[in-house]
Specification:
Blueprint lengths: L2 H15 L1 E3 H8 L3 H13 L3 E4 L2 E4 L8 H4 L4 H12 L7 E4 L3 H11 L13 E5 L2 H7 L5 E5 L3 E2 L6 E2 L1 H7 L4 E7 L2 E3 L3 E4 L2 H13 E7 L11 E4 L6 E4 L5 H9 L3 E4 L1
Parallel strand pairs: 4-5, 4-9, 5-6, 9-12, 12-14, 14-15
Antiparallel strand pairs: 1-3, 2-3, 7-8, 10-11, 11-13
Helix pairs in contact: 2-3, 5-6, 6-7
């Protein structure tokens, strides 16, 4: 297991158990106790956990992993999902992207589509986002016009939220929204861990003509703290082929088109 994967796994364990023991975790992950101690010290330095004698306990941040630790999870699935979702965009569209590792992948896939290039001085695609990392990635692309909402940035996700973001979004119309979620349940709808992000994402859904949820199978059939929207407000779910078939059938029964890639 690579170090970045191990760090992400340790944070996951803390989120589930609230506390972990060095010796127990070392045995579970088949690495030395010294390695686990160094990993925990590294995470503690970044204030992602609190070290204790013989282990660590979770702090508030451990339940909402910073984006840099989420990127190592379900990489092949997210790449396939991102490519399939990006293929839905057409030249001249106003496309919305909220924050998240999968939507960041969609942004990268959009950036390399030569058929979306603009003509003359016109941009081939307009991207509306509240995610600083996505804006940074696309700002250097000459075929993309970037519109960034205002707001206050959260370091865990790089998303902007708050009244300033609301003010900008309320004036815009989005043709196609790629919605990243922390959880998506066929009965309860789409969720985010943070209420501020859920509020902005909800407004993006309201301003969009078509909503495409992008989520790997690990997020399906689950709920998180703050609801973004009802399941009926999502038109299409792009997920991976290993997602639970029963969950996919439940989404289809709820009226959501499903595309597993």
């Amino acid at each position: 297991m690579a170090r970045h994967e191990r760090l992400s796994t340790l944070l996951d364990m803390l989120g589930q158990r609230e506390k972990i023991d060095v010796e127990d975790v070392a045995e579970e992950l088949d690495v030395s106790a010294a390695t686990i101690r160094r990993d925990l010290d590294h995470l503690a330095e970044q204030q992602l956990l609190t070290r204790t004698r013989g282990g660590a306990v979770a702090n508030d941040l451990a339940y909402d992993l910073p984006l840099r630790y989420k990127t190592a999870r379900h990489v092949p699935e997210k790449q396939r999902i991102s490519a399939a979702a990006a293929a839905l965009a057409e030249r001249g569209m106003a496309v919305g992207l909220n924050g998240g590792t999968t939507t960041a992948g969609v942004a990268r896939a959009l950036a390399i589509r030569s058929d979306l290039s603009g003509r003359g001085d016109a941009s081939g695609l307009t991207v509306v986002t509240n995610a600083l990392n996505i804006a940074h990635e696309l700002a250097v692309r000459p075929n993309v016009k970037i519109v960034v909402t205002g707001g206050v940035a959260r370091p865990q996700s790089f998303e902007l939220s708050g009244p300033l973001a609301t003010r900008v979004l309320s004036e815009l119309t989005i043709d196609l929204l790629f919605l990243g979620v922390d959880a998506f349940d066929p009965e309860a709808g789409a969720f985010a861990h943070h209420e501020g992000e859920a509020s902005i994402n909800r407004l993006m859904v309201e301003r969009a003509e078509r909503v495409v949820a992008v989520a790997d199978g690990s997020k399906l059939g689950r709920r998180a703290f703050a609801r973004i929207c009802q399941v009926g407000e999502v038109d299409l779910l792009v997920t991976d082929v290993d997602a639970d078939p029963a969950a996919l059938k439940a989404f289809e029964a709820a009226g959501v088109e499903v595309r597993a890639v």
